[in-house]
């Protein structure tokens, strides 16, 4: 039944035997590419985090010379805010959650030796790396980096005399376009692999949730990004070749860009959300020793969310130009999305019932994903309701809301996955005590950063202002207290990440050896050595059951690996 | 690619991996062209003035190019049949006909554009022409990519290698054809 | 709830605050409930020696209803929220009550130009009063605003009115507000508009009819000259 | 994939060329409706014929057709959502003063008029 892996993969440089940085850089092995995505994403996360540190300090203590950066001018402030957003979404959340975990987990969880197109996979990473470099170069060109918000609304982004960062804005659009190409290639790879290369005996409904989620996310991305790619070309032409696609003076319409952008921009939220949901599902089931509650229901709700997410985009434009009559339609569709998402959360909560819960570090992260993402979810209702959005739009309430969704996704979700699969990735256990310290020092400051910002938002504080002393109504002592509380919590949270880095590299070299299956989990990746050899298995596994058969009655083991014959 | 991983050889979906991937490429291309042409149609319906601009496009050149692409598609699909019959040499010849079609298409475009640009209808002169050059240019890039891949596939086909690729490039080429089938009335006929 | 943070100075500010409270109550209920159950389950089902987990598929009907019923109830709450949101939106953004006076608001990088109707209450007459970054309105008067932009997107935002509207180059957008209390507050630009975005603050002066008349008398004469377009351009 | 061998590709091609001629001839009647039908109706038919006979979408597994349709449906959604304010020169409580017969020369002038316009929407 199981196929034997040919000993020599001449397509696969950089496996055991070959050594050296070159063979690592140009390897086509999915695990190596996953690590490349992971470390690039982490590096970009440090950049984005540093930006946050700089502009948060400027907001709380305007005019103060930021240690490690210096004075922050309005143009630099805009550039930092813009690139913080773009980097955290396009160069941290997507590469780590989709590309890194996708590349590492999909072949291992489906029981095959690699992605279906290893060389396209490598190409996708190389293009991604290029896009990251291109983006960073924009800080060193004349005029500095683009500062018109990550939504790149024209005419501000289209004309150099408006944004005063001509080269910067072109580079910004170019970098994002390149990044899209990279993820299109990667996405096609993920989807095709999951559709075609499942281990013998593995039905679609035997795939672990995280694989399902990454695949659905890739499909959402592919189906939504097209208009924005077209739009990016149009915008580049407007910027450099004198066309007038978005120029109202010459028959264009700036609102068209908003539609092109948000038609992608909203599904994008779910593109990054779904992998985090999948990771949470897998971690929770393992550490609660429970079968995932209503596997199929989860799947259907996710697909429903995906389809719905294509019908809600204009709720980002309620007060920025969409016709008032359209707002009604988009309010209804937007609030409908709360149904599948709520059901998803209920499923996770129900999964805990009757479990035998161990609060290990990955479990803490996964549980806190649910606890905090709920806040992000419910605050979204306020903004989806068109009437309320008239006041809330572009205030700090919006900012706090989407950080309460993106932080659980990009940071909490990532750490849940990283701490859970670390033994499989590197063959060693992470230090659980340090891990817990890092968890508490990240999750508590996180809430202390953004809960105050909800209040400031309700008080009418609008976004992307580098100095609130310019607005008498926002220049009140209690507001400054909240701003400084948020900023100081941010310092603590960023500082806490050093604990993680220390733990990460310490465990890398001196962590205790992890066996094949330290967590006693069912899914296929735990049936091979840690770290998996090149080709993943000496003999590829065959699957006999679903991924979540925990605590089945009448077995002395409380888990039941997918590949274990009945 | 002798070291193709086992993953690539599996086909749980009942469709060969390569073909499946090509279809996914096509889906993502559909939304790219869809976004561009959708924007074009919105503007076009909003600006009656563009009819006057569109009148300057040359229907006959457009029609000729359509004919060229349709014929090259015929060659491609015949090549696919030959490849399925295992006749690499025949597939090779037919693919070169497709290639010739692609080249002709691009040459005609080049001539057509140079005429129009000399007449003063440039990318920036009016948003109709912006769309005209952007959409046709994006399509032309796909044609260019297509003929390059066709050349590669044809070279291996004559040695009876990787014959399944003949179908893949064929499907892609037909898609490029379909896109043009819609560009033709949008840019040339609707006047 | 919002009013404790920002005064409510327009006729519809109250509606928005009430809508906020409605959503807050409905959503808050579900939030507190699910978090409570969530944490209770974590404590209740901590790993205990000798106690194994249970094998629950969640595919059976009697199990499924534990999530089906809640999510149907959530749907009901959604309906209430939708109704509230749509009505508020209709009253503020879609339906235009007849205007008693009209002001023109022109945004540009990085300043607001407010064209007030003069003593005759008519816009585009010689006695219009044009002011940079100062909007003077009468309390209890229903105003229409004509919002325009000269360069990029801006956003006319008056927190005390709970009002926001993007100004879009190439579009003229009409909206309305009716001040209900006198005072002086912020006008913000809430859409990033370039380097000077933070400098686009303006002030709104809500005055009694007498004060407003006095202000007009004071500035009217000056700005007759300033009405000609070039003067507004600067 | 066996049925495809029964398709006479040359015949399909002849049909496509014939339809092409019709779509070219369409505008010569100088009737807008006819032109639209001959232009876009026939484009649809041609695209369907290519997809069915050349790309064998009808022989491929069902999900391929679903994938493609999904893409097209999403594009329709996008159009439906964007058109009401991108395509229209005027809507509820807003209008675009510059959008009457736009040309480069006139544009600036028209925008000026737009900024100091005499009220054109009456409510």
Quick summary:
Chain C is of the alpha+beta class. Chain C is built from 4 helices and 10 strands. Chain D has 3 domains: 1-55; 62-86; 91-117, no CATH class.
CATH structural class of chain A: Mainly Alpha
What is the H-and-E element order of chain A?
A: HHHHHHHHHHHHHHH
In total, the number of domains of chain A comes to 1
In whole angstroms, how far apart are the ends of chain A? 15 Å
Largest interface: A-C, 97 and 88 residues
Any guess at the CATH architecture of the largest domain in chain C? Sandwich
In CATH, what is the homologous superfamily of the largest domain in chain C?
Cupredoxins -  blue copper proteins
Shape summary of chain C: elongated
Quick one: how many beta strands of chain A? 0
Kindly state the mean pLDDT of chain C as a whole number?
90
Explain this structure.
- The complex is a heterotetramer of chains A (566), B (191), C (234) and D (123).
- By secondary structure, chain A is mainly alpha-helical.
- Chain A is 64% helix and 0% strand.
- Chain A has one domain: Cytochrome c oxidase-like, subunit I domain (Cytochrome C Oxidase, Chain A).
- Chain B has seven helices and no strands.
- Chain B has helices at 6-9, 17-46, 50-54, 59-84, 88-118, 127-157, 164-189.
- In chain B, helix 2 (17-46) runs parallel beside helix 7.
- With 234 residues, chain C is of the alpha+beta class.
- Chain C is 38% helix and 25% strand.
- In chain C, the strands form two sheets. A five-stranded mixed β-sheet of chain C has the order 3-2-1-5-8. Chain C has a five-stranded mixed β-sheet with strand order 4-10-9-6-7.
- The radius of gyration of chain C is 26 Å and the shape is elongated.
- The relative contact order of chain C is 0.15.
- Chain D folds into three domains: 1-55; 62-86; 91-117, no CATH class.
- Helix content of chain D is 63%, strand content 3%.
- In chain D, helix 1 (9-25) packs antiparallel against helix 2.
- At the A-B interface, helix 6, helix 7 and helix 8 of A face helix 1, helix 2 and helix 6 of B.
- Strand 8 of chain C pairs antiparallel with strand 2 (94-95) of chain D, so a sheet runs across the interface.
SSE layout and pairings?
The complex is a heterotetramer of chains A (566), B (191), C (234) and D (123).
Chain A lengths: L20 H5 L4 H31 L13 H37 L7 H20 L22 H4 L2 H31 L12 H32 L13 H34 L7 H14 L15 H29 L8 H24 L1 H7 L3 H31 L5 H27 L18 H34 L56
Chain B lengths: L5 H4 L7 H30 L3 H5 L4 H26 L3 H31 L8 H31 L6 H26 L2
Helix pairs in contact in B: 2-7, 4-5, 4-7, 5-6, 6-7
Chain C lengths: L12 H32 L16 H34 L6 E8 L2 E6 L12 E4 L1 E5 L4 E7 L4 E5 L4 E5 L4 E6 L5 E7 L12 E6 L1 H18 L2 H5 L1
Can you tag this structure with a few keywords?
heterotetramer; B: 191 residues; mainly alpha; Four Helix Bundle (Hemerythrin (Met), subunit A); 7 helices; D: 123 residues; 3 domains; two-stranded antiparallel ribbon; 63% helix; flat; disordered C terminus
């Amino acid at each position: 039944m199981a196929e034997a892996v040919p000993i020599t993969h001449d397509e696969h440089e950089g496996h055991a035997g070959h050594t050296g940085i070159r063979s690592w850089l140009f390897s086509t092995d999915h695990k190596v590419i996953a690590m490349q995505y992971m470390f690039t994403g982490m590096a970009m996360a440090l950049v984005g985090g540093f930006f946050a540190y700089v502009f948060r300090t400027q907001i709380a203590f305007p005019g103060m010379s930021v240690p490690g950066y210096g004075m922050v001018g309005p143009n630099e402030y805009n550039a930092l805010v813009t690139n913080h957003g773009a980097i955290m979404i396009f160069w941290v959340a997507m590469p780590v959650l989709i590309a890194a975990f996708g590349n590492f987990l999909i072949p291992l969880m489906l029981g095959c030796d690699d992605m279906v197109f290893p060389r396209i996979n490598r190409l996708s990473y190389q293009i991604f790396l290029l896009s990251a470099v291109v983006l960073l170069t924009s800080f060193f060109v004349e005029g500095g980096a683009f500062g018109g918000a990550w939504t790149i609304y024209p005419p501000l982004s289209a004309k150099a005399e408006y944004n005063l960062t001509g080269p910067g804005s072109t580079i910004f659009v170019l970098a994002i376009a390149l990044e899209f190409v990279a993820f299109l290639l990667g996405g096609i790879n993920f989807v095709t692999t999951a559709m075609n290369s499942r281990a013998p005996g593995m039905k679609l409904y035997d795939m672990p949730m995280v694989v399902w989620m990454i695949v659905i996310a890739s499909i959402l991305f592919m189906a939504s990004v097209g208009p924005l790619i077209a739009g990016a070309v149009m915008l580049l032409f407007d910027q450099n070749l004198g066309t007038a696609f978005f120029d109202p003076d010459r028959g264009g319409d700036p609102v068209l860009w908003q539609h092109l952008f948000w038609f992608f921009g909203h599904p994008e939220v779910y593109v990054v959300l779904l992998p985090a949901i999948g990771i949470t599902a897998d971690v929770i089931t393992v550490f609660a020793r429970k079968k995932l509650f209503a596997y199929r229901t989860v799947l259907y709700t996710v697909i429903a969310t995906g389809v719905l997410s294509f019908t809600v985009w204009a709720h980002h434009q309620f007060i920025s130009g969409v016709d008032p009559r359209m707002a009604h339609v988009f309010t209804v569709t937007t609030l409908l999305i709360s149904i599948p998402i709520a059901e998803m959360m209920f499923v996770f909560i129900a999964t805990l019932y009757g479990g035998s819960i161990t609060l290990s570090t990955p479990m803490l992260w996964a549980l806190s994903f649910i606890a905090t993402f709920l806040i992000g979810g419910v605050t979204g209702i306020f903004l989806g309701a068109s009437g309320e959005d008239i006041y809330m739009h572009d205030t700090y309430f919006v900012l706090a809301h989407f950080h309460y969704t993106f932080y659980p996704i990009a940071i909490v979700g990532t750490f849940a996955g990283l701490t859970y699969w670390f033994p499989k990735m590197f063959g060693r256990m992470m230090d659980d005590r340090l891990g817990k310290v890092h968890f508490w020092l990240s999750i508590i400051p996180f809430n202390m950063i953004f809960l105050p910002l909800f209040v400031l938002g309700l008080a009418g504080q609008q976004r992307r202002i580098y100095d609130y002393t310019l607005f008498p109504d926002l220049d009140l002592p209690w507001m400054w207290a909240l701003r400084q509380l948020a900023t100081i919590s941010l310092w603590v949270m960023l500082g806490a990440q050093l604990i993680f880095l220390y733990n990460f590299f310490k465990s890398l070299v001196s962590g205790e050896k992890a066996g094949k299956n330290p967590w006693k989990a069912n899914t296929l990746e735990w049936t091979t050595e840690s770290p998996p050899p090149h080709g993943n298995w000496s003999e590829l596994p065959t699957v006999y059951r679903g991924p979540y058969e925990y605590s089945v009655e009448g077995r002395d083991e409380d888990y039941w690996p997918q590949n274990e014959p009945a | 690619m002798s070291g193709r991983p086992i993953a690539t050889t599996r086909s749980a979906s009942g469709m060969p991996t390569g073909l499946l991937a090509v279809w996914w490429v096509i889906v993502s291309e559909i939304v790219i062209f869809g976004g561009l042409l959708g924007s074009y149609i919105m503007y076009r319906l909003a600006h009656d003035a563009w009819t006057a601009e569109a009148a300057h496009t040359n229907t006959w050149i457009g029609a000729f190019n359509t004919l060229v692409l349709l014929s090259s598609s015929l060659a491609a699909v015949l090549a696919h049949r030959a490849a399925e019959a295992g006749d690499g040499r025949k597939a090779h010849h037919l693919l070169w006909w497709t290639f010739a079609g692609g080249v002709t298409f691009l040459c005609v475009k080049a001539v057509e554009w140079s005429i129009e640009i000399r007449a003063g209808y440039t990318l920036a002169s009016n948003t109709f022409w912006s769309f005209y050059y952007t959409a046709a240019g994006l399509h032309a890039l796909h044609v260019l990519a297509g003929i390059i891949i066709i050349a590669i596939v044809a070279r291996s086909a004559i040695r009876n290698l990787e014959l399944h690729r003949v179908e893949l490039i064929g499907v892609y080429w037909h898609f490029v054809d379909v896109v043009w089938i819609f560009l033709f009335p949008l840019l040339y006929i609707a006047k | 709830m919002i009013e404790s943070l920002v005064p409510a100075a327009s006729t519809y500010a109250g509606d928005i605050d009430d809508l906020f409270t409605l959503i807050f109550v409905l959503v808050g209920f579900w939030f507190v409930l699910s978090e409570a159950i969530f944490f209770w389950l974590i404590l209740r089902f901590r790993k205990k020696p000798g106690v194994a987990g249970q094998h629950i598929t969640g595919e059976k009907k009697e199990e499924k209803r534990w999530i089906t019923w809640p999510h149907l109830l959530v749907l009901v709450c959604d309906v209430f929220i939708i109704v509230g949101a749509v009505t508020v939106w209709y009253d503020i953004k879609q339906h235009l009550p007849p205007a008693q006076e009209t002001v023109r608001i022109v945004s540009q990088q990085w300043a607001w130009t407010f064209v007030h109707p003069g003593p005759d209450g008519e816009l585009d007459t010689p006695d219009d009063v044009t002011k940079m970054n100062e909007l003077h309105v009468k309390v209890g008067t229903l105003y229409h605003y004509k919002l325009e932009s000269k360069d990029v997107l801006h956003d006319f935002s008056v927190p005390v009115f709970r009002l926001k509207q993007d100004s879009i180059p190439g579009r003229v957008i009409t909206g309305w507000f009716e001040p209900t209390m006198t005072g002086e507050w912020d006008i913000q630009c809430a859409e990033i508009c370039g380097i000077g975005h933070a400098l686009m603050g303006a002030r709104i002066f809500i005055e009694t009819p007498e004060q407003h008349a006095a202000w007009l008398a004071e500035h009217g004469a000056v700005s007759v000259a300033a009405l000609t377009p070039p003067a507004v351009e600067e | 994939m066996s049925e495809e061998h029964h398709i006479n590709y040359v015949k399909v091609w002849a049909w496509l060329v014939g339809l092409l001629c019709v779509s070219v001839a369409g505008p010569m009647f100088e009737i807008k409706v006819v032109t639209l039908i001959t232009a876009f109706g026939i484009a649809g038919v041609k695209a369907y014929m290519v997809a069915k006979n050349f790309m064998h979408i009808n022989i491929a597994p069902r999900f391929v057709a679903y994938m493609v349709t999904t893409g097209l449906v999403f594009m329709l959604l996008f159009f439906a959502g964007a058109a009401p304010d991108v395509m229209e020169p005027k809507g509820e409580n807003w209008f675009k003063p510059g959008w009457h017969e736009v040309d480069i020369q006139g544009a600036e002038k028209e925008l000026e008029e737009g900024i100091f316009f005499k009220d054109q929407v009456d409510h």
